[in-house]
Amino acid sequence: MKGKQYALLGLFLVSTLAAAKTPVVELEIRNHLFHPEEVRIPANTKVKLIVYNRDATPEEFESYELNREKVIMGGRKANIFIGPLKPGVYPFFGEFNPKTAQGRVVAE
Amino acid sequence: MNSIRTYLVIMLMAAFSLVSFLAALNGYLSSMAEAEKMLDTQLAEASDLLMLSWSGEAAEPSPNSSSDILVFQVWRDGDLLSASPGAPVAPIGDFSEGYRYGNFSGYRWLSYTRLAGDGTAYMVAERADLRHTVAEKVVLESVVPLLLWLPVSAVLVWLLVGWGLRPLHELSRQINTRRSDDLAPVTLDNPPVELLRLIDSTNSLLARLSAAFEREKHFAAHAAHELRTPLSVLKVHLHNLAEELPADEPALIHANAGVERMHHLVEQVLDLSRTNPELIVANFQDVDLHSLAQRITAEAWPQFAEKNLGLSLEGDEAILRGDPALLETLLGNLLDNARKYTPAGGEVRVVVERRPNAVRLLVEDSGPGIPTGARERVFERFYRSVSEEGNGVVGAGLGLAIVRHIVEVHKARIELGESDLGGLAVRIDLPLADNRG
Amino acid sequence: MLINSVILVLREVLEAAIVVSVLLAVSRNLRLSTRWLLASLPVTAIFILLFSSNLDAITDAFDGAGQEVVSAGLQIAVFAGIVGVVFITELQRSGHVGSLRPLPLLMAITVICAMIREGSEILIYITAFAASGENGAAVFAGSAIGGGIGISLGVLMFAALRAVSAELSARLCVFLMALIGAGMVMQSTMLLEQVDWLQPGRELWDSSALISEQSISGQLLYAVFGYEASPGLVQVLLYAISVVLVALAWVLPHHFAGVRDAH
């Protein structure tokens, strides 16, 4: 019970600090491929990724390097905030079709 | 849940499937790595083939160019010299030798670029999503049966564990189904090491129990026998003493009464130990309860007459299976009780009655009876009601305990009630069928 | 394809299996009936169906943050359940007789919360491929293997927890529950960062070179205590707070008992 309260408290504290100006990057999943395959974002900045799943089948956006995972049902979109990131390459993939759904975020 | 078998089956299956799945996964991974290496080599060889076969003419139709699984391009100095029909116009690979993954034409491809000495780049690309399909299919053929056969191994494990636990079942069956008085040792053919100690300790326990029963069986009898001799000696000396003393000497009367009481007690203890249902070896035969009752009542008659009590016997011949000596003791004890508790001038009645499945023996008196609350306790050894302490009745409280022993040996039912003579009615239903054991 | 299915399903199943086997060991240690597990399975199945069939609506709720918020809520509920289980167990062990009654219900709720999200993800994954037809055999075989490995590990862990002495078993259970609970909180912070409800803070370290999250050992560590190769400040703080909370739930009942005895 206590843990919940602490978590919620922390949550309100930090979300009020969040800046409103967040760059938005869009990408699509089509035929189990990410378009574009490579996303370039500024380093040390928080970025909002909007991922559209144009396939009929669900996909899970997953990245170990970015610590992100989210199921996107067929024909839907998902908002995923990433960063601020140090300069570097951060691969991501579609966990349901990892052979083809591969992409990377390049922070620079 | 608390079954050894269920526990073992679940644990064994968990361990078995964990190990076999990990092994299958290991096999799958190394097979796929092998296949990948082979596919990579094939792609590189395809680029060699392209380099050797391309003669420098533009857009040469290749026999497998219609395939959309494999595409190729030939570049020199940034110009696309030749390409398969399915290939895009943009380069499908890097301009340096090696493998590269990339997306084009709506698919993901693995490309290989071979650089010739003159700077010509020969690029071959293969669909990334399809290149493993065949290899995976082949590997799956060996993995899937493992899953399908798992239920079979579960059934086998279930049966085998059950089979392995059979000695345990056999042991508990032997202990469970034996009669309560059967103290023979447990025997198991070829017992497993794990059960040896259990069997040994069980058997040693049974042996000690059996020895204790044996001692108990003989102790009371031995004690009573040993008491008889000094008692007889005592009687003789009292008799001799009576010659020299006046007949109304109070000490002599008390001593005689005490010895008489002691004698009665010893006989009853002997009877009690003889009739113990757990120890007795009864001598069952056909007995006519009516003629047996005739004999006993005739023997008892003088004592009844002395106290001015009426004694009657009703009923006809009634044959049943029983031990005649025990039945005599039974009726004797009941008559003894009735005589003691019925005040002078009263009446005692014995009835032998044939019923559908039993012979009923009924002993009634016109005495004070037994209150309902005390009826169960009168069967206890050495039980004596409060009232009888005062009215000079001689007895040790063993009579009804002996009666109950004999009733149990005959698998009969005993019931205490009220008699229409005004006193106690003892009803005993002795079954007709021979149902010993 | 097979190996991807194995990893996906194993990751989800293992996490739930560990929660179930530890709670099962706790209730066996306390000689409680384990019927709560049987009773919670159909409820879980219903919630999994509801969750996965309404995932669209759930995702769109809270301005697109619904999926993460609900998942994080479930994970925090699992953590709260674990804290409650530890507290009640230790209360009983420190001599407050008769305090175990709410335990089966609490365990059932914890297990249900732990299985809903995992179960839904597996269900969505498998139904997607069952519909498409291609790769079906590989996905089914992979899911079966992943599920089998996860459940077997859970069963063997239960056996191990029951094989050791009662005292050691109780300590191990609390230790594992602290790790699992903190791992749950860790995952929920990640989900809340993902929808910008929580600021990640700076990255504290990067141990992916040591144990990569993709590796089998990384997956196992992730399942047991939410291993994160490159955690942020907030994550580590919340992780530490969670461990401390479980420790308090463990120690406080004995402390009370000690105070009471002293009077």
Automatic annotation (TrEMBL), chain A:
Database matches in InterPro entries: Cupredoxin, EfeO_Cupredoxin
Name of the protein in question: Cupredoxin domain-containing protein
Signal sequence range: 1-20
Domain EfeO-type cupredoxin-like: 10-107
Segments forming a coiled coil: none
Species in which this protein is naturally found: Seongchinamella unica
Alphabetic keyword roster: Signal
Phylogenetic classification of the source organism: Bacteria, Pseudomonadati, Pseudomonadota, Gammaproteobacteria, Cellvibrionales
Automatic annotation (TrEMBL), chain B:
MF terms in GO: ATP binding; phosphorelay sensor kinase activity
Domain Histidine kinase: 222-434
Superkingdom as given in the UniProt entry: Bacteria
Compartments, record wording: Membrane
Enzyme Commission number(s) of this protein: 2.7.13.3
Transmembrane segments: 7-29
Tagged with keyword ATP-binding: yes
Catalyzed reactions per annotation: ATP + protein L-histidine = ADP + protein N-phospho-L-histidine
Keywords: ATP-binding, Kinase, Membrane, Nucleotide-binding, Phosphoprotein, Transferase, Transmembrane, Transmembrane helix, Two-component regulatory system
Pfam families: HATPase_c, HisKA
PROSITE patterns linked to this entry: HAMP, HIS_KIN
GO cellular component: plasma membrane
InterPro entries for this protein: HAMP_dom, HATPase_C_sf, HATPase_dom, His_kinase_dom, HisK_dim/P_dom, HisK_dim/P_sf, Sig_transdc_His_kin-like_C, TCS_sensor_his_kinase
Limits of the HAMP domain: 162-214
Membrane topology classification: Multi-pass membrane protein
Broad class of the protein's primary localization: membrane
Protein name: histidine kinase
UniProtKB/TrEMBL annotation, chain C:
Cellular component terms per the entry's GO annotation: high-affinity iron permease complex
One Pfam family in the UniProt entry: FTR1
An annotated Gene Ontology molecular function: ferrous iron transmembrane transporter activity
Keyword Manganese: no
Cellular compartments annotated: Membrane
Keyword Transmembrane appears in the UniProt entry: yes
Superkingdom of source: Bacteria
Keywords: Membrane, Transmembrane, Transmembrane helix
Residues annotated as signal peptide: none
Transmembrane segments: 6-26, 33-52, 72-91, 103-131, 137-160, 172-192, 232-252
Entry-linked InterPro entries: FTR1/Fip1/EfeU
Bilayer topology term: Multi-pass membrane protein
Protein family (similarity comment): Belongs to the oxidase-dependent Fe transporter (OFeT) (TC 9.A.10.1) family.
The protein's name: Iron permease FTR1
Protein species of origin: Seongchinamella unica
Lineage start: Bacteria, Pseudomonadati, Pseudomonadota, Gammaproteobacteria, Cellvibrionales
